[in-house]
Design brief:
Layout lengths: L6 E2 L10 E2 L9 H4 L12 H18 L4 E12 L2 E11 L6 E10 L4 E8 L6
Antiparallel strand pairs: 1-2, 3-4, 4-5, 5-6
Length: about 130
């Protein structure tokens, strides 16, 4: 039997209640509200670091900035023809304090990287 991969169960939903991924919007509070896979612990993974650097490069191009990757704070990975990463990381622009970013990237089996988005993580108070 073919598994339906277009639906995912979210924290707080009853079994059988599913959400269509096409309707899903990644929120700034997703770190707290969304249950995907267990978080990664090896932040030195070459594919994860390359994906994170590609994400901040994408952000810099889109926003005419010059942030540099500092460190990964949190990441999850889903494997399917490559690695889909959901990454929370820090980057710094010059001498300023590091800022926290969120990104979704896909590291394909041919070693190419697609950045779905990269943005500054909103603060919990806003």
């Amino acid at each position: 039997m073919r598994k339906d991969t277009s639906m995912m169960l979210h924290k707080g939903e009853e079994p059988g209640e599913k959400m269509n991924l096409m309707d899903y919007e990644y929120s700034s509070s997703e770190d707290d509200d969304y249950v995907r896979t267990d978080g990664l612990e090896n932040f030195d993974s070459v594919t994860l670091v390359e994906s994170t650097k590609a994400a901040i490069e994408h952000f810099n191009i889109e926003n005419n900035t010059s942030y540099k990757f500092v460190k990964i704070e949190r990441a999850t990975c889903c494997v399917a023809a490559g690695f889909e990463y959901r990454i929370t990381f820090q980057a710094v622009d010059g001498e300023a304090e590091p800022k926290t970013f969120q990104a979704i990237t896909f590291y394909w089996i041919d070693c190419s990287i697609t950045v779905d988005f990269c943005r500054l993580k909103s603060s919990a108070s806003s």
